[in-house]
Amino acid sequence: MTIAFRPIIPAMMLLLLLLAPGIATADSFRWVDDGGKLHSLEEYRDKAVIVHIWATWCSPCRSEMPELSAWLQAHPDVIFLPVSVDESASVAGAFLKKNNISLPLLLTDNQEASGLGVRVLPSTFVIAGNGEVKQRLFGAQPWGDEAFSSQLLGELIP
């Protein structure tokens, strides 16, 4: 009898995310773009941003992507950073391409995500220009719901 360990890995990663502590400010959060350049939220000082942490192996992440993509197209003025915790850019990029989802390819690791306060995937954070995390949203969100959208956009206004 052979035991398959592959399905256990995402579950273990999720458990680690759930057990990690959150932080009050997010300035130190870092990610890499598809060109390999390292970025941090310090680049967005004095600007409100939404950071959305997702992964291709996360079923709720995959199911909310079409609505999320449509929401972003309707709100091009919002600084939105969809950051994947997938292990490779090729996996995340292939998922986006296959599903015709036009999001930038940004990657981080579990340690960075945990430091931001990720407990489950997907996780969405509204971050004020001073680095304060104003709102934490865990799980898939109703991106197509007008009341949710208005409330979220209201959080971005200083």
Concise summary:
Helices cover 35% and strands 20% of the residues.
Question: What would you say this structure looks like, in words?
Answer:
The structure is a single chain. The protein is of the alpha/beta class and 158 residues long. The protein has one domain (25-156): Glutaredoxin. It is built from five helices and seven strands. A seven-stranded mixed sheet has the order 2-1-5-4-3-6-7, covered by helices on one side. A hairpin with a 5-residue loop joins strand 6 and strand 7. Helix 1 runs parallel beside helix 4. The protein is globular and about 35 Å long. 29% of the residues are buried. The model is unreliable at 1-24 (pLDDT under 50).
Main attributes of the structure:
158 residues, alpha/beta, Glutaredoxin
Structural class: alpha/beta
Q: Based on the structure, what is the oligomeric state of the protein chains?
A: single chain
Please write the string of helix (H) and strand (E) elements.
HEEEHEHEHEEH
Q: What's the end-to-end separation, in Å?
A: 59 Å
Low-pLDDT windows of residues: 1-24
Strand residue percentage: 15-25%
CATH homologous superfamily (4th level) name: Glutaredoxin
- CATH architecture label name: 3-Layer(aba) Sandwich
CATH topology: Glutaredoxin
**Rg estimate, integer Å:** 15 Å
How many β-strands, per DSSP?
7
Going across the biggest sheet, name each strand in turn: 2-1-5-4-3-6-7
Mean pLDDT: 85
Largest sheet: 7 strands, mixed
Helix coverage percent? 25-40%
Tertiary shape:
globular
